[in-house]
Amino acid sequence: MTTLARATDTLTRDALTVLQPGFAGTTAPDWLLRRLGEGLASVALFGRNVTSPEQVAALTAQLRAEREDVLVAIDEEGGDVTRLEVRTGSSFPGNHALGAVDDVGLTRAVAAELGRRLAAAGVDFNWAPSADVNSNPDNPVIGVRAFGADTDLVARHTAAYVTGMQSAGVATCTKHFPGHGDTGIDSHHAMPRIDVDADVLAERDLVPFRAAVAAGTRAVMSAHILVPALDPDLPATLSRRILTDLLRGEMGYDGLIVTDGIEMRAIAGTYGIERGTAMAIAAGADAICVGGGLSDEGTVRRLSDALVAAVRAGELPEERLADAAERVRALARWTAANRPDGGRSEDTADGDVGLRAARRAVRVTVAEEFTPLTEPPYVAAFTPVANIAVGDETPWGVAAELRRLLPGTETGAFNGAGAGSEALAAAGSRRIVAVVRDEHRHPWMASALDVLLAARPDTVVVEMGVPRAEARGALHLATHGAARVCGRAAAEAIAGV
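RESULT FIELD:
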């Protein structure tokens, strides 16, 4: 009986160890601290947990007082997807802007500075970078989160990002394996399917992941996508063929494999989170990301119980669960060994690198000679529905930065069929700055610009998404992302600063 009790305790601890849950609030709840004592080895932070870097540092210190080697994970891509600066917008442009500049040294420097700030706040595991090749222009969830649509460009910048961030002692998690770029569906809502030959995948989508592995990425995140050329039956997150045979076997990867959020509808809506969790670990995943939507103790209990039950039912080998748990602990040992003492010294910081990168990323198209604005304009933001990865909490656009340069600037948000006429009426006699995001994906947005430009050809257009639509307007700026620094770079160009 004593031996069985010890085995059961070990099994339960291993089940807790492979979970990476979130929670509600800006301090750690009692249940989370208790679970850390019972074996939970990772905690995930989301925008709801963040008010400032100082608050995050206090929170991570609270977690480490309970368990010194806890992995603190975050989804901090910079650019449009920011958690550390969720209330203000990011100080760093995202991948698409870095790819537009195409300076791997700059990408490495941006990642290193972002990693330094994460480390200073006590975060040591980042679910980034996105290594997806954005080959489908209608992709609703990747877009500016990708370095671009060119495989080699994405590969070299993925490797630079991994090297830069990990130089700050923060483990990277390259995502979304085997590549989410050729999808027209968001896996937060349904199961995307990629129907291309294995040769195309090998030559296009897998190349950046090979580069990340060669650069030493400490983790890889699986995608909830069905890729029949690799596995006709199961999505990547649940596929042994993809996680074990391909990623571990053929590609020689030996680090941590993490799932994308297990509560996303692509998995939860088809398999359920309990079954999906057990299947993912059995397939070769080592950690389960959960908590973007579900963030309570009951979810942790359900998933840990499901893993224990799967072992006892013979559906999940106990050795596989133990191996997964050990890989989590190995990553925790790496981060502990590489953790800067209180963050890097200030003389190694490069606080302006994000703004410099954003300025370099702006692409300017002038219809004819353009005179910078000297009077406060009206900023018409044509606002699409934000995808779940980006969220709707983070401010974006150019109005705040233009207001700083041209006090009295006014703004409004518009969408739908009448957006153009509504914006014209709201602007009155003021010069109009129209801000769009992925105009090529939103017919209503293109129509709104048609209306504006027909009535006011002197309109300035700022594209803050993927710039695939034709450049038009008296001045057209493509920022390649909607981070705060991208808005500032655009505002400076508009005002001639």
